[in-house]
């Protein structure tokens, strides 16, 4: 291990190397970063932490960690309809491992650069590996997507496909038997999730509520229902699965889709009269969406297989005990 000073380490790995954002006045190098704001713009702020041995293990490549740290934060911004702008990284490292650092920072910069968002500062300390990222995003005034606006009659939608990441984790733990090619595909979703950034922005002024699916669809949709003081019906036959998940049994697929985690898709509600404009608005977002249910007044989330209501125990529900808090 070469003896890089903390300053050199930051300079080498945690300074933005591409074209800087014009709204960044000062980035790394001073006691604070300074950014410019625009009248009529609000700022959404979110933080996520990943702790070694709790949120990830040695099986996760360093590049994937960098990608995922940015992705989970951008997914929170997407759920609010915000446009990603600035990132701050608090990193605690057991040692300066340069292979690890260059892979990790490449994973971060790659995804951040794709969304034109800039790492503007942070903190570097020695200790057990812990990664904390704060992301800030821009929102036109009054257009924030929230969890509390769903109304009876609204349709419930979800983006992409569900359950892949949870199935990948199960395969790694030998709880699920799948071909090694299948496992690889699922791990792609677990390691390199795609934050639905342009979808979130396209939903401004259209969705009555929105959340990102990080703890499993059932749990996250229930946050919308509780905050909106409504209930909902979920159409089990409509749940969207990847080709890989479709090779599993119906019971397994439903289980991972409903109660898994780490999907980072968006779940949102759309009033009937907006359904037409939704199709048009989404032509550029590059992601498929699926209608999976409807909001009503009867409290709680109820599951339907065709016309038949299915109880949670009928779905083989067991808690995953995942490391998300
Ligand atoms: P201070 O002691 O004043 O907090 P530091 O010496 O910790 O400042 O950091 C020096 C500069 O480098 C600051 O501008 C800080 O924002 C930036 N910085 C430190 N660690 C990181 C990091 N992991 N990623 C990005 N910027 C960082
Ligand atoms: Mg200082």
UniProtKB/TrEMBL annotation:
Catalytic reaction annotation? thiamine phosphate + ATP = thiamine diphosphate + ADP
Annotated binding of Mg(2+) 3, by residue: 31, 76, 212
* Domain PurM-like N-terminal residues, every copy: 29-138
Query: Which residues are noted in the entry as ATP-binding?
Result: 122-123, 147, 214
Protein biosynthesis is among the record's keywords: no
| Pathway annotation | Cofactor biosynthesis; thiamine diphosphate biosynthesis; thiamine diphosphate from thiamine phosphate: step 1/1
Which InterPro entries does the entry link to? PurM-like_C_dom, PurM-like_C_sf, PurM-like_N, PurM-like_N_sf, ThiL-like
Q: Where does substrate bind?
A: 55, 262, 317
**Domain PurM-like C-terminal residues, every copy:** 151-303
Question: Does the keyword rRNA-binding feature in the UniProt annotation?
Answer: no
Which annotated residues bind Mg(2+) 5?
215
**Per the UniProt record, which EC number(s) apply here?**
2.7.4.16
Entry binding sites for Mg(2+) 1: 47-48, 123
Q: Name one GO biological process term.
A: thiamine biosynthetic process
Give the top-rank taxon of the lineage listed in the UniProt record for this protein.
Answer: Bacteria
* Gene Ontology molecular function terms on file: ATP binding; magnesium ion binding; thiamine-phosphate kinase activity
Role summary: Catalyzes the ATP-dependent phosphorylation of thiamine-monophosphate (TMP) to form thiamine-pyrophosphate (TPP), the active form of vitamin B1.
More about this protein: Reaction mechanism of ThiL seems to utilize a direct, inline transfer of the gamma-phosphate of ATP to TMP rather than a phosphorylated enzyme intermediate.
According to UniProt, the name of this protein is Thiamine-monophosphate kinase
The organism named in the record is Aliidiomarina soli
